[in-house]
Structures are given as C-alpha cells and as structure tokens.
Amino acid sequence: MVAKLITDRAGSSQWFERGFVTYSNLSKEQMRGVNEQLISDCGAVSESVAEAMAKGVLEHSQTDYALSITGIAGPGGATKTNPVGTVCFSWAYYDLAAADLADKKIKCITTIQFFSGDRKAVRKQSAHFRNT
Fold first, then answer.
1. What separation in angstroms does the CA of 118 have from each of 2, 40, 76, 128?
2. Which CATH superfamily is domain 2-6+22-125 in?
3. Which of 36, 32, 35, 33 is nearest to 19 (CA)?
4. DSSP assignment of 15-70, as one string?
C-alpha cells in the first residue's frame, strides 16, 4: 500500500528504487537479513525488528533511505502486549556526515503506534502515518 501511494506520483520512478513485502518471519530473515533470534526474542511486531528490516533494505539494495512497517492489523494475531492495531515503523538512512563515505553508518528512527479500527482501517492508517 505504501509503494502504491508513492508510485501514484508521476516521476516517482526517478527516485523510488524498490519495495519488499516480507510478510512471513522467514521472508524477513531471507530477504531483509533479520536475525531469527531477534524475531524469537522480540517478536516480529517490535521496534527492534522494524529497525532490522529497514537496515536490511539498505544492506540489500542500492538506496539511501528505507522504511519498514510491521504490525498486527487483525482480526487475529494480538497478544496482551501487542493488541490489534500495534504497528512499528522504522526509517533508515545513511549518515552522510561520515568523513569517508565507505565508513558511513546507518541511522534509524523508530516508533510504535496503536491504531484503531478493523483490518482495513489499521492498514490505511499505517500507510498514511507520518512521523513528525
């Protein structure tokens, strides 16, 4: 849904390089480089996993910025600590302040949000969320 919103804009092919849909834990591990133990320890819906997913995009593509979203849209999948509507976001980017570009470090901004509504509403709110 996020990729659709981005590519709805004319000219987005000039700066939008790719998108990944890694729905299962295995796909997060294989395509995004998320450590299986991290998913086991923190859960797939956690800021730690969202950060690892965003970093994985940078490490597995030739882009400068990445966004990851992991959450529970429902109706099932909720836990006491992660109710339906729990969504974690991470924006990753290269710190271009490094003296040597070969030494540039990945920086991340992560947040967790708790949206309300049904599956469709949670997904829509997630796609339109802006961390200000």
1. 18, 27, 11, 16
2. CinA-like (3.90.950.20)
3. 32
4. T--------SHHHHHHHH---HHHHHHH-SSSHHHHHHHHHHHHHTSS-SEEEEEE
CA distance 129 to 123: 10
φ, ψ at 100 (rounded to 5°): -115, 120
CA separation, residue 92 to residues 15, 67, 79, 105 (Å): 16, 6, 27, 10
State the Cα–Cα distance between residues 89 and 47, nearest whole angstrom.
7
pLDDT in 10s for each residue of the chain, 132 residues: 999 999 999 999 999 989 999 999 999 999 999 999 999 999 999 999 999 999 999 988 888 899 999 999 999 999 999 999 999 999 999 987 766 656 678 999 999 999 999 999 999 999 999 987
Show the tokens assigned to 109: 């901004």
Query: Can you spell out the DSSP letters for 20-33?
Result: ----SHHHHHHHH-
Mapping DSSP to helix (H, G, I), strand (E, B) and coil, where does residue 77 land?
Answer: coil
Structure tokens given for 83: 């109710």
